[in-house]
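Think of the structure tokens as a kind of shorthand, similar to the way a musician reads notation: each symbol stands for something richer, in this case the local conformation of the backbone. In the example below we present two proteins back to back. Begin with the first one, reading the sequence and then the tokens, and try to describe in your own words what changes along the chain.
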Amino acid sequence: MATGAAAVLAASVLIGSIPWAYLIVRAATGEDITSHGSGNVGAMNVRRTTGSWSWFALAVIADASKGLVPTLLVKTVLGGVPPLVPASTAGAEAMLAQAAVIGAVLGHNYSLWLALKDRRLRRTGKGLATGAGALFAYDPRYFAIVLAVGLAALAITRIMLVGQVAAAVALPASAVLLRSPDVLFAVVLSAVVVIAHARRLGGLARGEEPRMYIDDSGGPRG
């Protein structure tokens, strides 16, 4: 099982590493997305770079698919669990689906394909859309709770970073609430996403984080 989980993790990292946002912006404008906005290779930065909500929507779908597709395949094919049923019902095989989720998010956050291009490994994303797609495939209940908490925090504070971090923190809380055996997995995935936001948390504490940062020059890098 451990060997299988390692193989799934590696394959999912490679899939998660596909820099769709980078490719979309290159095709649409010829620009390098990492030189704009936050510098992240993610959907919101596609909006900041192109000024287009259509390209943003395409990037969201593409990034979410990086998490959804490998997790769904592993869950249904290797775990034998129907699409809308929580993967934890597969018992030990749930580890394979968990590896797919974490691998896809890690791949998005630290794209190996961009590392080959740039000849250095660096953080390239924050894993929100990819993680959301993966969670929907893994256990739709987590997806619903995380989405609701994130949107509520964003609506109250009007600060995207708060909504993003609140969504990540809500994951292990939801596992506890649902009395799921996924608590450790949820803590690890939450930590991966929160760590990706760590650089900006200091600015948030100092009141420097902008509200609804959607423009190219409207907020900090990171």
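Once you have a description of the first chain, move to the second and do the same.
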Amino acid sequence: MIQFPIAEAPDPLAEEAGRKLFAGTSDFLKGVVAMDGLPPADRVEVCFAGRSNVGKSTLINALTGRKALARASNTPGRTQEINYFTLGDLYLVDLPGYGYANAPVPVVEKWQRLLKSYLQGRATLRRAFLLIDSRHGVKAVDEEIMSLLDTAAVTYQVVLTKADKPKKGDMDKMLAQVRGALTKHPAAYPELILTSSETGDGLPTLRATIAGMSD
């Protein structure tokens, strides 16, 4: 049996629940730069984390069908806020991209402190979705975030983005590398989700997964 298999397509009921949730109203609520700015912890929330340029904003926009809900920046790492979006009775949380080279050290350190505080102190956080670029696999900066999530005891599920880009042989090598990396991390959820914002592949699975957390 393969460790960390790719999640199967949802059954029709689960897929419809995901479709209905994401077809509803989704709005930007606020950007947070300090823990005291977080909204009330009155509902389940899921967060998206990933390296700069992994396609995080594009994926959130594709999931919601809103082209500009999450703002994609041409300058990776420019957005240094925790961005909250409402979606039905859930919060979608967009964490700042990490692994960018040009940000000043104090900015990076401040972001790391905020991220650590958020992950360790948000009781309503049900799952983190850790986005990994299918063309590149797990990098050292991803390992750092995985270790932080392990320490915070936050379950996280790897979502592979841009899955339409690699050739099959390259995809197989990348999947083997990702699976090998995840075996060292106890908080990793045991299924991967393969997605492409461009083709729509995997989006129903991710929508259904998130919808299932609001039950």
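Compare your description with these statements about the second chain. Residues 47 and 93 are 4 Å apart (CA to CA).
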